[in-house]
Amino acid sequence: NYIIYVVILAMLYAILTASYDLLTGYAGPLSFCHAAFYGLGAYTSALLTLRTGMSFWLAFPITGVWIFLFASAVGYPALKIRGHYFAVTTFFFGHFIYLFLLNSRKLTNGPLGLRGIRPPDSILGIDFSNITASYYLVLFFGLLIVVFLHLLVQSRIGRALVSIRENEDLAESIGINTSFYKVLAFSISAGLAGLAGSLFAHFFRFLHPTDFAWMISEMIVIMALVGGLGTLVGPIIGAGVVKFFLELVRPAPELRFILLSIMLILVLLFEPKGLVGIFRRIRGEK
Prior knowledge:
Layout: H1 2-27, H2 34-52, H3 56-78, H4 83-103, H5 105-108, H6 131-153, H7 156-166, H8 168-173, H9 178-204, H10 214-227, H11 233-248, H12 253-270, H13 274-282
Helix pairs in contact: 1-6, 1-7, 1-9, 1-10, 1-11, 2-3, 2-4, 2-9, 3-9, 6-9, 7-9, 10-11, 10-13
């Protein structure tokens, strides 16, 4: 059960890093608020099922759409800022959401945490309170999301995002609506993070604001960098490698993030494109 539990966590992080890669890896803007959308998705789905009696199977898509729309409203003005200014803005936005979750006691139960979240309703006799069934549920939606992202980055939208990443001014000069595509990437990325949050909420059935603090956003960035931004598969690999590495050094919690930082520095020193870049170098690819 412990191994399955760790694998489920790794798959949730894989969804988060893959969705994060759509924005930072393909469109370019560096964001530090992915955990905010992850947390909003978790609390939205949990509250829909707790306060309205809604089924998980209905709350799940509603959560994704709501976070997508919310991120569009936030991203439109925020993405007018470029470079480090946008990164700093997202960092403070992520911390604001954390403080909102922590202090909204009537809505989220604040520092006491949100309890009593139900697992997904049974389908075809499958009991999703069982950890094995939860594993297959997360795996199923994880694969769907990754396939969706793969098709998206291979499409015209993906090519437009890459052109913006390489040279935004040039992309705009040839007729690409850079503002629209950046907001679209930001919103899709956030919406998928919200779906991951919904899965997290109904798997653990207990939420606390610290589960979505700023350090989780930093972790997502580290996982994506270790795996290799702009490759889609790289951040997924990075999520698995970093998560299992953290589990290996769990007996020494005071050293976990020191060792993780050293691993990140070594990977970026030897291969700035991450683990995917190392694999490509071994295979003789450029």
